[in-house]
From TrEMBL:
Record domain HTH lysR-type: where: 17-74
GO cellular component: cytosol
Gene symbol of the encoding locus: cynR_9
One Pfam family linked to the record: LysR_substrate
Native source organism of the sequence: Achromobacter anxifer
UniProt protein name: HTH-type transcriptional regulator CynR
Lineage, top ranks: Bacteria, Pseudomonadati, Pseudomonadota, Betaproteobacteria, Burkholderiales
GO molecular function: DNA binding; DNA-binding transcription factor activity
Amino acid sequence: MTKRPAPASHAAPLRQPTLRQLRGFKEVARHASFSRAAEALALSQPALSAAIRELETLMGVALFERSTHHVRLTPAGQAARAQIEWLLNSYTQGAEDLQRLLDTQAATVRIGCIPSTMHLLAPVVAQWRLRHPEITLILSDHLNDELMAALGNGELDIGLGLDFGLTPGLAAAFVAEDDLVAVLAADHRLARRQAVTWQDLKAEPLAVLSRGSTYEMIVATLRQLGADLAATDTLNYTDTLYSLVRAGLRVGLISRLYTQGQRQDGLSILPLQRPQLTRRICLMTRAPEQQARAAVRLCHAELAEQLRGRAALLASAQA
């Protein structure tokens, strides 16, 4: 009958020397004196002596020969000196690398926006980078629900989007109001009007962007009018919408911000009234009492002011 081997015993993990003990060893070896080493380390001499005794007990060897006239390394201490200094230098270098990493992270601000606001945000960010080259800005675009979720879970530091009720813990700075408009071909029968109503468009073939809160606002209004939603194209991209409008195949319903970043030749962009649907565009971040990083606070405050100015300038240009 084969005898099973006895199970291996699980040895207790070895104790590790502390930084205090290793630094004490280094200074005593360098100064060949406990008193001068204690002074260099800003320790009392009894505290340093205790640390060296603990290190020797841990290592199981005497590291120093002591007498009333001298302190010198034992052969074991001499053999350990280079390794201990390497350990200390590696720790110092690693701590410096960690601090650089944290400093870089602290100077990185992640900004998200809904797609219709990127043309509003991008020029302001470009100017901000010139004023603050030490801070890295990372930009991304999101649907509004995704934007709010990313702000809430910390994936984003700042978001430019729609204020439909803030998640607890977030704060918003108002930037602009964005209303829905009708986009028609320049030769459309309604194109020369100053504005159109939803009732005017009830029988028109329409095109809307298929995702996000704006789509939900448009669909709810069309349902209230009794419009035929089956005749409304839902599209993924603005380029598709504008192409259909220019060809006279559809009337586009879209937020005004989407029109400000597009060439408008062959198009007529009219206010959409009765009812006028408006969205509040806000720059959002964590509430001040929860926001620890100075770079984020600075960026949010300056961008909010610059965005308000740019939004007002664009609105006056289109008036």
